[in-house]
Amino acid sequence: MLTAAQVLAQNNFGDTRTGGLAGPMGLFLILVLGTATVLLIRNMNARLRRLPDRFPAQESEAGRDEMARAVSDPTDETVTADSSTDAANRHQQRRDT
After folding, report:
1. Contacts of 67 (CB under 8 A, 6+ apart)
2. Which end of the chain is more exposed for a tag (fewer CB within 10 A), N or C?
3. What is the pTM of this model?
4. Are 80 and 96 a contacting pair, CB within 8 Å?
5. CA 63, CA 70: separation in Å to the nearest integer?
């Protein structure tokens, strides 16, 4: 005959088999996520090291105004010619550095 303690001690909740995979699978997933995190951090640090200390200065206000005029009035040949010359000069400077 079953006593009250034996009835209360029975496990009737879910899977009762022994040797489940939850523990090893959880450990595996934690290790994979940790490894991925370490590799992503190393990759980002390498990319940040390759960036220059300072970026080139932005175009001056006059240069932006000139480009805005060239876009708004493409029939004005002097502005367009000046803009293309400026663009060629900037391209040459980038190649030299």
Report:
1. 59, 83
2. N
3. 0.41
4. no
5. 11
